[in-house]
Specification:
By secondary structure, the chain is α+β, with helices and mostly antiparallel strands. It is about 20% helix and about 40% strand. A hairpin with a 2-residue loop joins β3 and β4.
Amino acid sequence: MEELVVNLHIHTLYSDGIWPHKKIAEAGIQAGLDALVITDHNILVKDLEGYYQSNGKKILVIIGEEIHDKLRDPQKNHLITFGQTTELCTYAENPNLLIRKVTENGGVSFLAHPFENPLPQVNEIDITWEDWDIDGFTGIEIWNHLSELKNESGNWISLLFNVLFPHQYAKGPHPLSIKKWDELLSSNHRVVVVGGSDAHSLVMKKWSLKRLVFPYLFHFRSINNHLILPTKLSGNYLFDRKLILEAFRRGNSFIGYDLPASTRGFRFYAQGKNETATMGDEICLENAVTLQIRLPEPVECRLIHNGKTIQTWFDQDICTYITKEPGYYRVECFIHYLGRKRAWIISNPIFIK
């Protein structure tokens, strides 16, 4: 099995970002990423997808879009889509129809920043997902790096502090996002979770002050998706794109907050009598199933079964649990960084039937 690090939810100068694709790809290479997924607002930028090279290294750039209904007030219900080859923002008014069209066109879809707080200091509303009477979507963006700034900036002082010291504010997904995910899984919805940067490389202005905040490189070193692939990338753009899409679709992945420490090397497996499963997979329960967790370094690790923590390990890098209970199992890990305990790894579930 091969591990691939992918940064998702990125904006370019084609919408409200400030850099072109090539320059963003160079920042991704500098950050050590394997792939980027660029999602400009309501525009599917064609002919710029593929491999980019810089300093003898390369990165795969996949292009999708972040779709929302421009006529809706307020403009909520943002959907991240990629893998499709046709512009689909004309279906934004009807989320169910839009999701179906994405699937029919070979793409995947994730509800963007489903829960977030407003930021009235700069006239920013919360752009939450409101229409939950939907089905067929691939998953939800459970941890949005830029949205978390809103959640952690309740006044001007905290906002200024977070802008000046951006390494400080990230703590983990919005609690309501975690709760909704468990509700959906408990209702037998196979929901994949991803982490998104929502990278724009913003320029913030106040009085005579002007500052570039949250550069692309900062986002690329923070909230990433680590995909577990059956084989290495081939260098063939279309083949590799298909591998990545399938891993996102199945949930063969985990979210890693790579700023405090690299999460490369995390693994979560289930071993049955005759089969092995990883994140996103299903395994049959015969007598018992052994769950195995391998961590890049010893931290606090929680095993969650059907939404409830059933085991917590401290300062261990290898964790094992034997179960005879069906259901879904997922892992959350926490690390201490700059004086605070923060979410570090969030795995997609393994399903035991």
